Fold this sequence. Notes:
single chain, mainly alpha, elongated
Amino acid sequence: MLRRQFSSFLIVGGVATSAHYAVMIGLRELAHAPVIPSTLTGYVVGGVTNYILNRRHTFATDRTHGEAGWRFALVAATGFFMTWALMALLVGKLGAPYIPAQMFTTGLILVFNFIVHRFWTFRDFSRDKPVLKQDR
């Protein structure tokens, strides 16, 4: 189950990341918006996509939107600020090109998000056992 779940998380993440990058690059290249607001706007679009698809396909949770939604929003907000901090450092301070900097940032946040969503956001505590026990 862990392998299937992580594979699904990667596919969903690819869709959400595509939405994020499309918005980011569109705002930056077509609208000439600053990098940080462009990437953060893309992050929000990707986050909404991510919640909808992960809730339904990856974690298949029985939690209500009221239970899972605020947890997802908290994790997304943490990732939002991590994205801001890393992009400000990499692009703003170190002068890295924004697309490779965003790719690096995305990779770090992907790992963080999977762990937290699996064990906290979408975990079904009513079963009174961790998700990992089902994987055996």
